[in-house]
Design a protein that fits this description.
Blueprint (H helix, E strand, L loop, with lengths): L1 H29 L29 H5 L14 H20 L15 H29 L4 H17 L5 H10 L1 H10 L6 H14 L1 H24 L12 H23 L3
The chain binds zinc ion (ZN).
Zinc ion binds next to loops.
Length: 272
Amino acid sequence: MITVLYIIIYVLIFAIGAVLGSFLNVLIYRLPRGLDFVRGFSFCPNCEHRLFPKDLVPIFSYLALGRKCRYCRKPISARYMIVELIAGLLALLAWCAFVPPTAFVPLSFDGGAWAAAGFLAALLYFAVLAVLLTISYIDHDTMEIPDSLSIAIAVCGILAIWIGPEVPLLTRVIGIFAVSVPLFVIALFIEGAFGFGDVKLMAAAGFFLGWQHALVALFIGIIIGGVYGVYVLAARKKERKEHFAFGPALCIGIGIAMFAGTSIADWYLHFL
Ligand SMILES: [Zn+2]
């Protein structure tokens, strides 16, 4: 009985994440274009036909309609479904990380408040992951990270003081500068290495993570960005001099550091 209950909860959490993912698709599309993302109906990017709730059921609508728009029959990019899928999985990850019985990120809590504290922490972490997912796609598309999204992460950092895992305030404040200042210097002197959007993102994420985990995030981001850069060059998708967005790699680094920062830092220090 308990197992069935857990499966229902997990399916529900995934579904909620996927629905929010479909809102993230709206943000990814509209934010860089300066369109209103709160009001206004969803529409097909090709024929601009208004989309109704039956067209907007995450993942299912896409598959049920044969990956085409219901109205103009033009193929719809798989990206919308992939974002919904990733958002669903991220919601599950945040839930499993903080809510018993699977909780693997320790919180400072007092006794019976554990479940409620875990729930709040899961919400906060999912919010950050959702913003990181949005940043990744927008930066990939436009090579820019909207300031509003970095500010959203900074706000989550402030909330984390109360509802996140315990990180001393000084550790957070040092985190603002630990990665962003070196990136800023690199951005000043090496053209095209990092953008100032990356600098602001890492300042905000540094406050959320604390400086140790911010360094872990940078470390992972550079590895991922490097591997991706080699792949792009090898596949000859871009010429050597062209730039590619570093934001997605940093976002993956931040996301991993949020959950495994301590383990990775311990593992690394083990070699010193
Ligand atoms: Zn259409």
